[in-house]
Design goal:
The complex is a heterodimer of chains A (117) and B (107). Chain A is mostly beta strands and 117 residues long. Chain A contains no helices and 11 strands. In chain A, the strands form 2 sheets. In chain A, strands 2, 4, 5, 6, 9, 10 and 11 form a 7-stranded mixed β-sheet that branches. In chain B, 0% of the residues lie in helices and 50% in strands. In chain B, strands 2, 4, 5, 6, 9, 10 and 11 form a 7-stranded mixed β-sheet that branches. In chain B, strand 9 and strand 10 form a beta hairpin. Chain B starts with a strand and ends with a strand. Chains A and B meet through strand 5 and strand 10 of A and strand 5 and strand 10 of B.
Chain lengths: 117, 107
């Protein structure tokens, strides 16, 4: 059974960089069939797609965040990562990683990241 | 970007009711439409892809229809475990976009 697990700091200071990693188990991140994505959800609000990456490193980003986002993949560790720079309180959210095949079919449990000094 | 608009934003229903949620895309997306269910404190769960195809393990009380710009999710007989928030999402193009959600509450 495929499992995804987000990890990283739960508290980030304003203007700093948010860094999260998603570890994939029960399957290979290098499969040619899948993209791997990040989605976030501010408290009490809806879902926002951040970006997706292919195992080769090809990426798609949300234009609203593109200038601040970097998604990378480490196939040797079966992980992919998110970096979001210059964060503000508006970036406070639960961050999910997910497998994208057609749509997002497997999700991590999510991790709350709070931006506060 | 393709905007996804769901209606209603919330609804109250009773156990056994038939419930329909609507999702409209700002431009045609063929059938590249998915539906998710989210319960409080949990990750979204994929229910439907391709507008009408059930994900493995999803009960047949859930059904989806539509093509182009207008889509519906129907729950044929609402059960206590179905009270949740439902989201549509288009995957016709990047950026992927979600509807604002429909919260289904107990009447």
């Amino acid at each position: 059974q495929l499992q995804l697990q987000e990890s990283g700091p739960g508290l980030v200071k304003p203007s700093e960089t948010l860094s999260l990693t998603c570890t994939v188990s029960g399957g290979s991140i290098s499969s040619s069939s899948y993209y791997w994505g990040w989605i976030r959800q501010p408290p009490g609000k809806g879902l926002e797609w951040i970006g997706s990456i292919y195992y080769s490193g090809s990426t798609y980003y949300n234009p609203s965040l593109k200038s601040r986002v970097t998604i990378s993949v480490d196939t040797s560790k079966n992980q992919f990562s998110l970096k979001l720079s210059s964060v503000t309180a508006a970036d406070t959210a639960v961050y999910y990683c997910a497998r994208e095949v057609v749509t997002f079919d497997y999700w991590g449990q999510g991790t709350l990241v709070t931006v506060s000094s | 970007d393709i905007q996804m608009t769901q209606s209603p934003s919330s609804l109250s229903a009773s156990v056994g009711d038939r419930v329909t949620i609507t999702c409209r895309a700002s431009q045609g997306i063929s059938n590249y439409l998915a539906w998710f269910q989210q319960k409080p404190g949990k990750a979204p769960k994929s229910l439907i892809y391709g507008a009408s195809s059930l994900q493995s393990g999803v009960p047949s009380k859930f059904s989806g229809s539509g093509s182009g710009t207008d889509f519906t999710l129907t729950i044929s007989s609402l059960q206590p475990e179905d009270f949740a928030t439902y989201y549509c999402q288009q995957y016709n193009s990047y950026p992927r976009t979600f509807g604002g959600g429909t919260k289904v509450e107990i009447k």
